[in-house]
Every structure is written in structure tokens, then in C-alpha cells.
Amino acid sequence: MKQQRIMVSATVITTIASLITGYLIGKYTSQNIDVPVVQKNIPQKEEEDEDSEDELDILPEGQIDVNKYDNFKLTLVVRSDLGMTKGKIAAQCGHATLACYKAAKKVNPLLLRAWETSGQAKVALKCDSEDKLLELQAIALSLGLPAQTIQDAGRTQIAPGSRTVLGVGPGPAELIDRVTGSLKLL
């Protein structure tokens, strides 16, 4: 009997401690509360440098009305003719995703938010040439979609300046399918 009381007490204490911990974690990770961040000798860049257009391709000029759509995604078109390893493809797709994110943030933050809140869908596709990559980019830009190509630095497997991946989106799946809908999955 005494052992049962001890076990019940331990369970109650653990439950209370868990609730308090969860509450505190939620409180300090909320978007509405500024939590001080300690940085150790990290050089501060101006915000303008962080979102510099120097590293981005051409940006779309128009704004897509997100209220007209309910399904959003980002596609990553990988050149299959370069013979990249899986690791290289993954790294290049990461670069393309980040470039598209920055482009969308600069051009249409509401579109970016719609994609983020709808699950951040990403689809990897393939094409067989740089010319096809550039053609797809032009079509995407004409529809007002963010479309960023990634040029490799040439330090490992690929010749410097080679375009490896095209990111299209984030954007309405309906519009993105008009650009990349005929491509095969990677």
C-alpha cells in the first residue's frame, strides 16, 4: 500500500514537472515573444547583405494572388546528364530550395507563407540538359513563379558554372504543373 502511494506521488510529480516544462518551452519558443539570443563573436551582417539579390537569378515581377489557390509546392528539377552522385544532388537541391525561399520572401511573402502553412511540399524531377533547365525557368518566371538555377562552384564533380538544379516555386501547384508537369520523377 505504501509502495502504491509512492508510485502515485512520483507519477503526479512527473506529470506536473512535464506540464511546467512544456509550458515554459512553448512560452519561450512562441513567435510573439522575443527571446534573447547569446552570440559569441559572430560578425553581424547588415540585413540588406543577407537578402542580397547578387546571389539570386532573375526575380518574377508579378504577384500571385494566393487566395485563388489552395495547394502549394516547390519543384526541384535536377539535370540528369551531369552524372552527379546522390550526395551532390542532395546538396544542390538544398541550395535551390534556399534560393527559391529567398526569392519568394523578397517578391511575395504571402506566397511563401501559404506554402509554409500547407506543409512545404517538395517534388524532385529530372531533365536532360541545361537548355531545358533555362527554358523551364523562363516559363516559370513568365507565370510569376520564383525560379532559381544553381550554378556549381566546380570544386568537386562538376565543371565550374554548370547549372545543376532549377527550383520552381514555392507556388500554386496548378501553376507549377504548367511548368514542370511533363517531367519525370528523379
From TrEMBL:
UniProt KW keywords: Hydrolase, Membrane, Transmembrane, Transmembrane helix
EC main group: hydrolase
InterPro entries attached to this UniProt entry: Pep_tRNA_hydro_II_dom_sf, PTH2
TM ranges: 7-26
Signal peptide: none
Annotated EC: 3.1.1.29
Domain of life: Eukaryota
UniProt cross-references to CDD domains, sorted A to Z: PTH2 (cd02430)
GO molecular function: peptidyl-tRNA hydrolase activity
Family: Belongs to the PTH2 family.
Protein name: peptidyl-tRNA hydrolase
Phylogenetic classification of the source organism: Eukaryota, Fungi, Fungi incertae sedis, Mucoromycota, Mucoromycotina
